[in-house]
Specification:
58% helix, mainly alpha, two-stranded antiparallel sheet, 253 residues, single chain
Length: 253
C-alpha cells in the first residue's frame, strides 16, 4: 500500500480540519463550527490504494496547491452548470480526478469551495475596481464586462444564485450593495450622472447590463452576430456601455 498523501495527525487516524469547518450562514458569509474532524482516506477507511479512485500525478507529487487549484476549477465548472444547490461534492471530485475526502480535507465541503471562488473573483475585481485614483463609472463598468466575458462561469454562478434564491436575507450581500449605492451617490454628487437618476436603480441596471452576455448569449448571437464568449464581444460591448455612461456625465469641465 502506498503512503497516504493526507497527513495523519492523531493516533485515531482522524486529521482535524484545523479546529473548525466552514458552515454557511447565508450565501456569501460563513461562520466557524469547532471540533468536527475530516477522515483520512488511507488510515481511517483502510482502503488499499489500488481500490481507491486513482489520484493524478499532482497528488502523487504531493503538490497541494496545484491540487487545490484543480479542485477549485472543477467546482467552478460544476457550480456554473448546475448551480451551488444542484452540485454534489462527488461530482466535483470526479471532474477534478480526486477523492471527495480530499475536498473535505482542503475546503471543508462545497461552502469552502464557494468561499475560494469568491476570493478568486475579488482578486480579479481589484485589478479594475480597486485602483487609485478610483476608476470613472464608464471605466468601471467596462472592467466588469471584460471580466465577465473572460470568466463566464463565475457570472453563471451568480445567475444560478438568483434562480435558486429562497428569499433568505443575506446580511453580507446587503452590506456590499449598500456600499455600492453610497459610492454611486458620491459619483452622482461629483457629476458622473444626473441628479434625477436613483443610484439604487442605476446599480441594478448596471449589474444586468454587465452580465448580459452571460444571461442572454442567444440574444448576443442573434442581435449582434457576436460570440458572447469572445474577447471581441467584450471589448465592443464594454466600450458601448462606457460611451452611454459618458453621455450621462453632467460635469463637462
Amino acid at each position: 500500500m502506498e503512503e497516504c498523501p493526507i497527513p495523519v495527525i492523531s493516533s485515531s487516524g482522524l486529521p482535524p480540519l484545523s479546529d473548525a469547518k466552514v458552515l454557511p450562514t447565508c450565501r456569501r458569509s460563513w461562520k466557524w463550527n469547532a471540533g468536527r474532524p475530516a477522515s483520512s482516506i488511507c488510515t481511517f477507511l483502510q482502503i488499499p490504494r489500488e481500490r481507491e479512485r486513482p489520484l493524478g500525478a499532482v497528488e502523487r507529487r504531493r503538490d497541494p496547491e496545484r491540487t487545490k487549484r484543480r479542485i477549485v476549477e472543477a467546482a467552478k465548472a460544476e457550480f456554473s452548470a448546475k448551480g451551488f444547490a444542484g452540485t454534489r461534492v462527488s461530482e466535483i471530485a470526479a471532474r477534478a480526478g480526486v477523492n471527495k475526502q480530499l475536498i473535505s480535507y482542503y475546503f471543508g465541503g462545497k461552502e469552502g469551495l464557494l468561499k475560494a471562488l469568491t476570493a478568486d473573483w475579488q482578486g480579479k475585481e481589484s485589478t479594475f475596481a480597486g485602483t487609485s485614483p478610483p476608476a470613472t463609472l464608464p471605466e468601471l463598468v467596462r472592467g466588469y464586462v471584460t471580466a465577465t466575458v473572460r470568466d463566464r462561469d463565475l457570472a453563471r454562478i451568480l445567475i444560478w444564485g438568483g434562480l435558486q434564491d429562497d428569499g433568505e436575507e443575506d446580511s453580507a450581500l446587503l452590506r456590499d450593495m449598500r456600499d455600492n449605492v453610497e459610492d454611486l451617490r458620491r459619483r452622482q454628487a461629483e457629476g458622473e450622472f444626473p441628479a434625477d437618476l436613483d443610484p439604487a436603480y442605476l446599480l441594478l441596471m448596471l449589474f444586468a447590463a454587465a452580465d448580459a452576455g452571460a444571461i442572454f448569449p442567444q440574444l448576443v448571437r442573434a442581435i449582434c452576430g457576436d460570440d458572447p464568449a469572445s474577447e471581441e464581444f467584450g471589448e465592443r460591448y464594454g466600450e458601448q456601455l462606457a460611451r452611454l455612461l459618458r453621455h450621462l456625465n453632467t460635469d463637462k469641465s
